[in-house]
Automatic annotation (TrEMBL):
InterPro entries: MlaC/ttg2D (IPR008869), Tgt2/MlaC_sf (IPR042245). It holds the Pfam family MlaC. This is ABC transporter substrate-binding protein. Keywords: Signal.
């Protein structure tokens, strides 16, 4: 009798333990899914608000903007980009060879070039944007959007990470072409052949041209 009871008790205890593990896993998984869904909503809201603010300034046109409006557009268009992370990707293995001062100089100039060039064709920011998919895993996110511009649909994807209590883009993929990889091919080729000083001289020339073009708009 006792062995039978003990056997039943052992089976019941094992079953209860297994059930507890399953319930705990389900609760943890549900909590993680809920958290990811909440973060996805936050990302969508952030991008939609950014898009609405840009369109409000453009107001269907791309001319006759004040200096203050252009500065605001530049901030809105580029403010969600982590230029240090993108610059580090672009430099690849050469990043570890740079001093802190060189990294700061590179990121500052690289960022300014991109910011200035972002105003070269403002009409594109009047495009209709749809948010097709937002996937969040821990501190990383992938956002797939479709931009309708001049009657054509173009996929625009964002690779993002969570940093300093907000979501920032580390790469923008236009029609399956990575922005960070494009910069990487260009920058690393110069670094490999001619070094950091040559790269910075080239970037500073592009910076000066971009600043001049922005001032003339």
């Amino acid at each position: 009798m006792w062995p039978s009871l003990l056997s039943r008790f052992g089976f019941t205890a094992s079953l209860m333990a297994l059930l507890a593990v399953v319930l705990l896993f389900s609760a943890t998984q549900a909590h993680a899914q809920s958290g990811a869904s909440s973060e996805a909503d936050a990302i969508r809201t952030m991008l939609e608000e950014r898009d609405a603010e840009i369109k409000a300034i453009l107001n269907g046109t791309e001319s006759d903007f004040s200096r203050a409006q252009r500065q605001e557009l530049m901030t809105l268009i580029n403010g969600f980009i982590d230029f240090r992370a993108m610059g580090q990707q672009a430099m690849g293995p050469f990043w570890s060879d740079l001093s802190d001062e060189q990294r700061t100089e590179f990121v500052d100039v690289f960022q300014d070039v991109v910011r200035q060039q972002s105003l070269s064709d403002l009409e594109v920011y009047n495009s209709q944007v749809t948010y097709d998919r937002i996937e969040v895993e821990d501190d990383s996110a992938f956002v797939r959007t479709t931009t309708r511009y001049q009657g054509s649909d173009t996929p625009v994807d964002y690779v993002m990470h969570h940093k300093d209590s907000t979501w920032l883009a580390t790469d923008i993929i236009l029609d399956e072409v990575s922005t960070a990889e494009g910069y990487a091919r260009s920058f690393q080729n110069v670094m490999r052949r001619r070094g950091f000083d040559t790269l910075m001289n080239s970037l500073k020339k592009r910076q000066a041209r971009a600043q001049q073009e922005t001032s003339e708009q």
